[in-house]
Every structure is written in structure tokens, then in C-alpha cells.
Specification:
The chain has about 170 residues and is α+β, with helices and mostly antiparallel strands. About 40% of the residues lie in helices and about 30% in strands. It is globular.
């Protein structure tokens, strides 16, 4: 279990999960360096919103938001969100990512990360049938009114039944 999971498990005795998610991200050094900030987490964790203000910390050589800041602000959220939604019977890993820079960003960017109940039920059903699967989640970083897309991040996420995953790893070691 990671340091972040240990802190979250202990803190869950005192705070709601959505509050821990928001402030856990915003206070963690690994996320703070992205310059992104989680602005909202729904109580059911199905919706997370983020903003990435342009500042001296993330401006690049041509005075726009550095592409690495755009990617790193969006990168961890879909996986950690799904881990919390599915629970401890599943293994969830980032498998790959694609980043598409659509236009230079000279303003604050916003993103929404969303899972639906149907999506979660489909994931659980497929894992029950196949033991493991991969999904692709796409996140757009936009202006405030969502009329312009500045960056698109496509994350491939691996999901497996925890017992199956442990057996699979044991077979590989043997």
C-alpha cells in the first residue's frame, strides 16, 4: 500500500471520501507540481473537475501553458478516481497515454473527469467474464465555457480482478 493510500485509509475515519480526494490531490507534492487544482469532487466520486491556471510556474518559452503541465494535471485523475469507485477487489493501473495539443493555451484551462453507473457496471461485468480488460478515457482541457479544446488526453487503463491478477503474477514468476 502506498503512502497516499495509507493516509487516505486513516483519514477516512474523519472525512468523507470526496473531501479526501480533493484535498489529498491538492496537497500532495506530486500533483501540486503540475500546477493543476481539483476544484470539485462529487460525493459519489463519479465527477471530478480540475482547473489549470496559467501562471509563471507553468508558462513556457512562448508564454503559453507548458504541455507537460497540461498532461500532468490530467494524468493521475482517471486511474485514481476509478480505483476509488471500484474498490479493493480490483487492480487498476495506467497502461498508456496519448496527448494531443490542439492549440496554445494563454488562459486558465478546465477539465471534467466523469464515470457513469452504466460504465462501472459494464467494467465489473467484463472483468467477471474476462478477468481483465482495458478501457480508454478521454479528457479535454478546455476554456471555461468549453467552446475551445486546447489539449486532449487519452488514457488507457488496465482493470483486473485482484485474485486473478495475483495468480497471473505468480505464474510469471514461476
Amino acid at each position: 500500500m502506498s503512502m497516499y493510500q495509507t493516509i487516505a485509509n486513516y483519514s477516512a475515519k474523519f472525512f468523507k471520501k470526496n473531501v479526501l480526494f480533493k484535498y489529498g490531490f491538492n496537497l500532495s507534492p506530486m500533483y501540486r507540481r503540475s500546477t493543476g487544482r481539483i476544484t470539485f469532487v462529487s460525493e459519489d466520486l463519479m465527477t471530478v473537475t480540475m482547473k489549470l491556471p496559467i501562471s509563471y510556474k507553468n508558462r513556457n518559452y512562448v508564454n503559453t501553458i507548458f504541455g507537460g503541465s497540461m498532461f500532468s494535471a490530467a494524468d493521475p485523475i482517471p486511474m485514481v478516481q476509478l480505483m476509488n469507485l471500484l474498490g479493493s477487489d480490483y487492480v487498476v493501473w495506467d497502461k498508456s497515454a496519448e496527448v494531443f495539443f490542439k492549440r496554445p493555451a494563454k488562459e486558465t484551462l478546465y477539465a471534467e473527469f466523469q464515470y457513469t453507473l452504466e460504465e462501472l457496471e459494464e467494467i465489473k461485468a467484463k472483468v467477471t467474464q474476462q478477468n481483465e480488460l482495458e478501457i480508454v478515457k478521454t479528457t479535454n482541457l478546455t476554456n471555461k465555457d468549453q467552446s475551445k479544446i486546447f489539449c486532449q488526453v487519452k488514457k488507457t487503463i488496465y482493470i483486473a480482478d485482484k485474485a486473478y491478477f495475483k495468480q497471473k503474477r505468480a505464474r510469471k514468476r514461476a
